[in-house]
Amino acid sequence: MVFITRCWKSLLPSVLLGWLAAAVLGFSLAAAQAPTSDAAPLLLLERSDDALWLSTQLEFELSPAVVDALHKGIPIYFVAEAEVLRERWYWTNKRVASARRQFRLAYQPLTRQWRLNIVSGQVVEAELGLSLNQNFETWNEALNAVRRISRWKIADAAELAPDTRHIVEFRFRLDLAQLPRPLQIGTLGQSEWSVELSKEQVLDAELAQ
């Protein structure tokens, strides 16, 4: 018993050191594998005589799993949404305008081109001529077209009350609901299929006049 106790005491520092090294290594691996968050976008808001326009340059990357699905012929959908809220000190903010834009990105193996469809409003409105179609030779050109939103009308000028504080809420995400059903189930809880960006910005008072 004395011999066993002495051996254990002599081995205790080595065992503790091993546990500590394993814990540090595990923490380092977890930190290295943790997905990086997408940067919050900067919004440029412009007011014309008849509308409020939003422009932004999104910063995000797609995981190898998403890119692989695209190369296999599966289209990927993104959704951008904007809301204009009128601030009310006596009650919750009132939504005075909203806009929605959908992006459909797909690879065409026969032509080796990337095709991007942009629809303003709901998907069914594409039948009314509100769809913009673009073809790109390279992957980078297609992805940059998704990242770039230029002069998007998000409200009519008449919807902005003068001398009133307004807030613009912007959201952008990868729309998993548009994926084929088997793929939807397989992507549940998978961070590599998550693309979400959001930004809340106060509208300058002079832009609301």
Task: Detail the topology: elements first, then pairings.
Layout: H1 2-33, E1 43-47, E2 51-57, H2 64-71, E3 76-86, E4 94-108, E5 113-120, E6 131-136, H3 139-147, E7 148-156, E8 166-174, H4 181-186, E9 196-203
Antiparallel strand pairs: 1-2, 2-7, 3-4, 3-8, 4-5, 5-6, 8-9
Largest sheet: 6 strands, antiparallel
How is the largest sheet built, in terms of strand order? 6-5-4-3-8-9
Regions with pLDDT < 50 over 5+ consecutive residues?
A: 1-37, 124-129
Seen as an oligomer or otherwise, the chain set is single chain
Shape: elongated
Radius of gyration: 25 Å
The end-to-end distance, rounded to whole angstroms, is 88 Å
Strand residue content = 35-45%
The number of distinct structural domains comes to: 2
Q: How many β strands by DSSP? A: 9
Order of helices and strands: HEEHEEEEHEEHE
Mean pLDDT level: 80
Helices, by number, come to 4
Class derived from helix and strand content: alpha+beta
The helix content is 25-40%
Structure description:
The chain is of the alpha+beta class and 209 residues long. The protein has two domains: 1-34; 43-208. 26% of the residues lie in helices and 37% in strands. It contains four helices and nine strands. It has helices at 2-33, 64-71, 139-147, 181-186, and strands spanning 43-47, 51-57, 76-86, 94-108, 113-120, 131-136, 148-156, 166-174, 196-203. The strands form two sheets. A six-stranded antiparallel β-sheet has the order 6-5-4-3-8-9. A three-stranded antiparallel β-sheet has the order 1-2-7. A hairpin with a 4-residue loop joins strand 4 and strand 5 (113-120). It is elongated. Mean pLDDT is 80; it is low at 1-37 and 124-129.
